[in-house]
Design goal:
The relative contact order is 0.12. The protein is built from 4 helices and 6 strands; from the N terminus they run αββαβαβαββ. The strands form 2 sheets. The chain has a 4-stranded mixed beta sheet with strand order 3-4-6-5, with helices on one face. It has a two-stranded antiparallel sheet with strand order 1-2. By secondary structure, the chain is an alpha+beta fold. 39% of the residues lie in helices and 29% in strands.
Length: 144
Amino acid sequence: MTSRDALRMAEEQNLDLVKIAPQAVPPVCKILDYGKYRFEQQKREKEAKKNQKVIEIKEIRLSLNIDTNDFNTKVNQAAKFIKAGHKVKVSIRFRGREMAHTDLGLEVEKRFAEALPDAAVDKQPKLEGRSMQMFLSPKPSQTK
């Protein structure tokens, strides 16, 4: 049917002509109350948003020559974040001559991951510029 005929039919019924699939050949249109359609669409989006779980990324910064107690404190903090269901970004910033010893930073991050039994490594440690980053997330069995 031509668009002119469809528009006339919609006006006769006091409704709107809405394009459902504009990329189709020929375009697909529907005669409906556009205000009611938008309201229902917004209601569906709001309902979907309500059921969504927001996951935050928390960051833990380590140094290359971190002491045992400082390391354990950071591990405990990360364990709290993981238990709360957040992802954790573990980063080490290399300064000066530390850039020559990135392998030590890799060992520190792997030791950090091993110290958290209920966390899974999302992204392996990777050197980007002067910092090395690794992402941890709760194991799938832990999430609700």
